[in-house]
Amino acid sequence: MSEAISVFRGGGRAIRAGLGLGALGTIALGIGAWADRRRLFLSYLAAYAFAVSIAVGALIFLLVCHAMRAGWPVAIRRVLEAIVATFPVLAVQFVPIALGLDVLYPWMSPDRAADPKERALLFHKRPYLNAPFFLARAALFLAVWVLAAALVRRWSFRQDHDPDFDAPARLYRFSAALLPAVALTMSFAAFDWIMSLTPLWESSMFPVYFFAGGFVSAIALASVLTYSAQASGHLPEIADSHYYALGRLLLAFIIFWAYAAYFQFMLIWIGNRPDEVTFYLARAHGPWMATTVVLALGEFVVPFCFLLSFRVKRHGALVAAIGAWILVFHYLDILWLVMPSASPKGLPPLHWIDLASLLAVGGPATAAGLLSARGRPLLPIHDRKLAEALAYESP
After folding, report:
1. pLDDT tens digit string along 97-122?
2. Residue 65 confidence class, pLDDT cut points 50, 70, 90
3. Do the beta carbons of residue 54 and residue 214 sit within 8 Å?
4. Which of 186, 46, 196 is closest to 130 using CA atoms?
5. Is the pLDDT of residue 3 over 60?
6. What is the pLDDT of residues 264-302, one digit of tens each?
7. Regarding beta strands 376-377 and 7-8, do their DSSP bridges make them parallel or antiparallel, or are they unpaired?
8. Residues 6+ apart with CB under 8 A from 325
9. CB neighbours of 356 closer than 8 A, spacing ≥ 6?
10. pLDDT attached to residue 4
11. pLDDT value of residue 345
12. Is the distance from CB of 260 to CB of 208 less than 8 angstroms?
């Protein structure tokens, strides 16, 4: 088996393109700092949250697969490991957010609040919502993710060179133990980085919503990368059944995303409390109302209808196309979470600074993921479940 699996040596052009686009995006952000400083930091936060949500989603998927000792995901494991290899770059890319706390978060200056009640509530939350504690928590979140991703990849790659190394047993124990920590850090990151943009609004369902979007987008990105690798001749072992498994996961988790979105809205609507409805009121007028409708149709209705088909889920190109579609609408979802919360007067849903931010964050992350895969086989060649994974037949 190991002799038939080639080492990945491609991606050079994509790596150079990622770095070049990242540099171009960074230069554009420099111009954006003069044009609209507030939009600059909001757009950067949206792009960063988009990338991090996908990377954390891929990490959770990877840990779940190890904890379940799942069979078929072994065939796409190296794709997931390439996605989580972006965490060191993402950790560095948090720096602009740390520099823009004053611009992004109203809790940084509670004395600016005009309403005395609002000002009192912001001061009440100061023990938690303050810059030193915020940055310390962010450092903890990123450290957990970087460490988890590094160890999972290290033990997986070690088995390529040492067939006697029992990677599955170690990864099983490690993944089962670390899953709660990764889930909790993701939840608190959602609270801190996104929900605290509206510091007087609270929802215990919000981290579930954020997780659902990131997790389904991680599966979507894995689908796109798997098909791209196969189309380039690097993963000829991938069969229709593997795409069917990915398609089923996409279908299941876009339903889960819609469930989380609907029940968060329904509970707040039933409660009808002034401090809760502000989140939806900011999205119920002007272009953001249209964005809400487009988001519901694009991230749920359209992929849901296509993924109901058995034949579509067994067609690699179609699953990859649906995955790319979901990624586009997940980014729109992150914009929907960030922009109205940070500006009660409303900001236009799309701006050229948004594209610059995506390039500045996504370009280097893409290059890092591809670099991590170069010089390594795209299949774990000594994994005991590899033969089972490649022979997988969907029911």
Report:
1. 999 999 999 999 888 877 788 889 88
2. very high
3. yes
4. 196
5. no
6. 999 999 988 887 888 898 888 878 888 999 999 999 999
7. antiparallel
8. 298, 302, 303
9. 25, 28, 29, 32, 43
10. 55
11. 55
12. yes
Query: What's the CA dihedral at 154, 156, 160, 161 to 10 degrees?
Result: 40
22-41: burial string, b at 16+ Cβ within 10 Å, e else: beebbebbeebeeeeeebbb
Pair 278, 198: CB distance under 8 Å: yes
Interval 191-222: pLDDT, tens:
999 999 998 888 999 999 999 999 999 999 99
Those residues whose C-beta lies under 8 Å from the C-beta of residue 137, and which sit 6 or more positions away, are 188, 192
Please state, in angstroms and rounded to a whole number, the distance separating the CA atoms of residues 389 and 78. Answer: 13
Which of these, 137, 371, 330, 352, lies nearest to 215 by C-alpha position? 330
Question: Which residue type sits at 121?
Answer: L
| DSSP helix/strand/coil, 395 | coil
* pLDDT tens profile 352-388: 999 999 999 999 999 999 999 998 999 998 888 999 9
Distance CA 300, CA 294 (A): 10
Give the total residue count for the chain: 395
Flag whether pLDDT at 389 surpasses 50. Answer: yes
CA distance 138 to 31: 27
Percent of the chain residues past pLDDT 90, beyond the cut: 73
pTM over 0.90: yes
Local structure of residue 203 (DSSP, 8 states): -
Strand partners, 377: 7
SS3 string, 102-159, reads HHHCHHHCHHHCCCHHHHHHHHHCCCCCCHHHHHHHHHHHHHHHHHHHHHHHHHHHHH
DSSP labels for 332-345? HHHHHHHHHHH-TT
Q: Rounded distance, CA 220 to CA 326, Å? A: 7
Contact (Cβ atoms closer than 8 angstroms) between residue 152 and residue 175? yes
Nearest C-alpha neighbor of 219 from the set 198, 190, 192, 243: 243
pLDDT of residue 2: 42
The predicted structure's pLDDT at residue 262: 94
Question: Which helix (H) or strand (E) covers residue 223, if one does?
Answer: helix 206-231
Q: What is the DSSP letter of 86?
A: T
Domain locations in the chain as residue ranges = 2-386
Separation between Cα atoms, residue 121 and residue 111, nearest integer Å: 11
Helices and strands (H, E) in the chain, number of each type: 18, 2
